[in-house]
Specification:
The protein has 22 helices and three strands. It has 545 residues and is mainly α. The protein folds into three domains: 213 residues, no CATH class; 267 residues, no CATH class; 47 residues. The chain has a three-stranded mixed beta sheet with strand order 1-3-2, covered by helices on one side. The radius of gyration is 24 Å and the shape is globular. 42% of the residues are buried.
């Protein structure tokens, strides 16, 4: 057995152990039997066991595999496993979300919604598995409570958890509604009984959440030292101060660009009036907006294929649906539910949130915005990148290169405009406004996470600079407090991809191939930029050999 075969054998063994401990992750990968019928432990034990497995994996790699004799792909995978373990340790020992955020339903709700929306098996089988997981939820909740016996959760996150728990009942009723008359009597009865038996546990959980409030803490910020460590772990090649200054510079430049475009559209008119006119060019109903979103995504796909900008697999498919109620507190506008790694074909779900006030429909779902959304979320953005990247090694999914994932989608907006997909000034103005939002995200993310900006200051900055409604800004900042380092990834990632493209053009000269550049990123979409650069260097060496 050669070194690469040893590596693969150990990978298979360790992934099997990891998935046994994390059956919800197996479902997300598209591995369903027996995992769909199982629940992870709700207690802290799951996380300590994961850390132990990662340590065992690395120890056995060092003892049994000669790193220098591996092929380039496996050397890269080894690097990813090491980085993954470093990140896991940071999340557990320093960020400590597992004992500061008492929202049990973020994971459970998302898992059940995934099983409902991904058509990977007949509805009968999926509903039977959902029933099995609902049956195990009371035990999960009991174990989940044990995480907080000694810790003091964050007040803001406890309030969000209460809101989530109030809405979760709607998800279980929705499951029953979907199953009625569409599955066998036996499965429906099992499902109905599971939901009924869950009610006392839901009541106990709500009482438990409310009992936490008197002992919660106000502080949710990581603080400067930990945030700097997080940025260093991600190997972005910049300090948080440098990232902050970059965001401030982009904000200044983009505001000037917005002013120039606005005056070209309507000389002398204030920005508010121009935006009001653009936003008025919108579907009349939310249902029409869903259809228009779907149409724009199809148009973007055809444009990529016609202009040979990136490889699109014909069997891959994207579905557009309304956001379910239980997710609306944390998804104010829209989100992409990516296809599972092992799904064949690759099918994604793009969910769009119904505005609480229909007067706000045109703010994010006007016809000019929808083209940018189609590019960012679908083609060649998130969906295309995810569907292609899912064809690579499972280890690549552990890399968690958020700056590549989000930066690619943001880069695509500019690239598709340069190629002529977006031609009218109104759509370009919307694109600049979206970029301003991403610049504000950098500033807010760094300052919030370092504890230099209050929640209310962040809300006001998003309302003032990014023109978000108060409702939207509050929902955004709520999420930012729980995901330090993520909001800055959009514009910073685009900046780093443009830098990488410039480097490759300089190195390859007239041999630079834009489609190859794009295909390399979509095929390695989960890698951080620092490792993506390694992949490009390998390609250059192979080409020059």
């Amino acid at each position: 057995m050669n070194e690469d075969e040893k590596f693969e054998e150990l990978l298979d063994e360790m992934m099997k152990k990891f998935l046994e401990n994390n059956p919800h992750y197996a479902t997300s990968l598209g591995l369903h039997d027996p995992y769909d019928y199982l629940m992870p432990k709700g207690s802290t034990d799951r996380f300590t066991e994961n850390l132990r497995l990662e340590e065992e994996w690395l120890k056995r790699l060092k003892e049994t595999v000669k790193r220098e004799e591996l092929n380039e792909d496996h050397k890269l995978d080894w690097n990813i496993i090491e980085r993954f373990h470093e990140n896991s340790r940071f999340l557990f020992y320093e960020q400590r979300m597992h004992e500061l955020n008492p929202d049990a339903f973020d994971e459970i709700g998302g898992l059940i919604f995934m099983m409902l929306t991904r058509d990977y098996a007949p509805l009968e089988k999926r509903m039977d598995a959902i029933a099995a997981r609902i049956e195990k939820t009371p035990k999960y909740l009991e174990e989940f409570h044990s995480r907080f016996e000694k810790s003091k959760p964050v007040k803001l996150w406890t309030e969000i958890a209460i809101e989530s728990a109030q809405n979760i009942g709607g998800l279980f009723q929705f499951v029953l509604y979907v199953a009625k008359d569409k599955v066998s009597d036996n499965v429906y009865e099992r499902l109905s009984k599971a939901v009924e038996n869950l009610q006392p546990a839901l009541k106990t959980h709500m009482e438990w959440l409310n009992s936490l409030l008197p002992r919660t803490i106000e502080k949710w910020a990581l603080g400067k030292e930990k945030f700097e460590k997080l940025i260093k772990l991600r190997d972005l090649g910049m300090t948080s101060d440098e990232i902050l200054h970059l965001g401030e510079k982009y904000l200044e430049d983009l505001k000037a660009e917005r002013k120039r475009l606005a005056q070209q559209i309507a000389l002398g008119k204030p920005d508010e009036e121009i935006m009001k006119k653009i936003e008025s060019n919108a579907p009349k109903t939310f249902e029409e907006a869903l259809k228009a979103t779907e149409d724009a995504m199809g148009e973007a796909r055809r444009f990529i294929e016609k202009n040979n900008l990136a490889t699109v697999h014909p069997e891959d498919k994207l579905v557009v649906k309304e956001t379910p109620l239980f997710l609306t507190p944390v998804i104010p506008f829209a989100a992409m539910m990516m296809p599972a790694k092992y799904d064949k074909p690759q099918i994604g779900v793009y969910i769009v949130t119904r505005p609480k006030e229909m007067a706000n429909l045109g703010k994010h779902l006007n016809y000019h915005s929808l083209k940018n959304t189609a590019v960012h979320e679908a083609y060649p953005g998130h969906f295309l990148q995810g569907a292609v990247s899912n064809r690579a090694s499972v280890v690549r999914l552990l890399a968690d290169g958020t700056e590549t994932v989000e930066g690619w989608a943001h880069y695509c907006e500019q690239m598709m405009a340069e190629k002529g997909f977006i031609k009218d000034r109104e759509s370009k103005l919307i694109q600049v406004n979206d970029a301003i939002w991403r610049a504000v995200r950098i500033i807010v993310d760094v300052k919030l996470s370092r504890g230099e900006m209050s929640f209310e200051e962040a809300v006001k900055m998003l309302m003032k600079e990014a023109a978000l409604s108060r409702e939207g800004a509050v929902a955004e900042v709520r999420r930012y407090t729980q995901t330090p380092g993520y909001p800055l990834s959009y514009l910073l990632g685009k900046h780093l991809i443009l830098q990488l493209k410039k480097e490759m053009k300089q190195k390859m000269g007239s041999k630079f191939d834009e489609k190859l550049f794009h295909d390399t990123i979509t095929a390695n979409g989960y890698l951080p930029i620092s490792l993506l650069r390694t992949v490009f260097d390998q390609k250059l060496r192979q080409r020059n050999a």
